């Protein structure tokens, strides 16, 4: 089974802090994704990466950046955390760019910015 | 562009009753469609997917969905609900070469 691991289950940060959310997958998947999940809004795509050192903006990239230096790891960075970034963050991976391949999700990081 | 609409943010059924969760999609190309389930405090898990071929797709835990092109629908059903089915369900459509686009989700409650 594919395992997608998000390093923190819960995080509490202060406004203005730089925040790193880490995600690691163990199946040599090419594609990785960051979504945020908010009640009533479903999942919204922040950034995704087709391969190492590649990244593309999703629907809501403002206030976020990403890093993919190694194939198995995809980091989401909040340069200066704000309270409106309080949310559940979900990382996912996919074997390849074929759009009939399913995504495999981590258990999520619940971030609270105070 | 692709989009997904899930009708009803909350559905309540009794144990043993039929479960019907509605999903309509919009796509300019033949879609690939997915249903995911999220149990409390967990990530999303794939229930089933439609790619090509048979329009009635069977998934895990007794769920199935039927792709109806004429109605642009992909509704999820289960003949008899169990308490363990209580969760949030997401319909999603794929866009060529990119990530999945998700609906806003439907929370299923099951009462005894």
Structural write-up:
The complex is a heterodimer of chains A (114) and B (112). Chain A is mainly β and 114 residues long. Chain A contains no helices and twelve strands. In chain A, strands 2, 5, 6, 7, 10, 11 and 12 form a seven-stranded mixed sheet that branches. By secondary structure, chain B is mostly beta strands. Helices cover 0% and strands 55% of the residues of chain B. Chain B is built from no helices and eleven strands. In chain B, strands 2, 4, 5, 9, 10 and 11 form a six-stranded mixed sheet that branches. In chain B, strands 1-3-8-7-6 form a five-stranded antiparallel sheet, with no helix packed on it. The relative contact order of chain B is 0.33. Chains A and B meet through strand 5, strand 6 and strand 11 of A and strand 5 and strand 10 of B.
Task: Report a brief summary of the structure.
The complex is a heterodimer of chains A (114) and B (112). Chain A is mostly beta strands and 114 residues long.
Q: Quick one: how many beta strands of chain A?
A: 12
Which series of helices and strands of chain A comes N to C? EEEEEEEEEEEE
Q: How would the global form of chain A be characterised?
A: globular
Tell me what portion of residues of chain B adopts beta-strand conformation.
Answer: over 45%
Mean pLDDT of chain A: 93
**Residues in helix, % of chain B:** under 10%
* Residues in helix, % of chain A: under 10%
């Amino acid at each position: 089974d594919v395992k997608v691991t998000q390093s923190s289950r819960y995080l509490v940060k202060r406004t203005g802090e730089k925040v790193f959310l880490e995600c690691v997958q163990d199946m040599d998947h090419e594609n990785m994704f960051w979504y945020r999940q908010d009640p009533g809004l479903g999942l919204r795509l922040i950034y995704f990466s087709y391969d190492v050192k590649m990244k593309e903006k999703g629907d809501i990239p403002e206030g976020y950046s990403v890093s993919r230096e190694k194939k198995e790891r995809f980091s989401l960075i909040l340069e200066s955390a704000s309270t409106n970034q309080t949310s559940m963050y979900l990382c996912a991976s996919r074997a390849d760019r074929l759009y009939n391949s399913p995504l495999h999700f981590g258990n999520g990081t619940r971030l609270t910015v105070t | 562009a692709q989009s997904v609409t899930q009708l009803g943010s909350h559905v309540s059924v009794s144990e043993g009753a039929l479960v019907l969760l509605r999903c309509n999609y919009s796509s300019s190309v033949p879609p690939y469609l997915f249903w995911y389930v999220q149990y409390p405090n967990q990530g999303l898990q794939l229930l089933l997917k439609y790619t090509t071929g048979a329009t009635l797709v069977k998934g895990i835990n007794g769920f199935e969905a039927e792709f109806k092109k004429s109605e642009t629908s992909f509704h999820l059903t289960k003949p008899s609900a169990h308490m363990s089915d209580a969760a949030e369900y997401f319909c999603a459509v794929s866009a060529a070469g990119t990530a999945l686009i998700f609906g806003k989700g439907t929370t299923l409650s099951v009462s005894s």
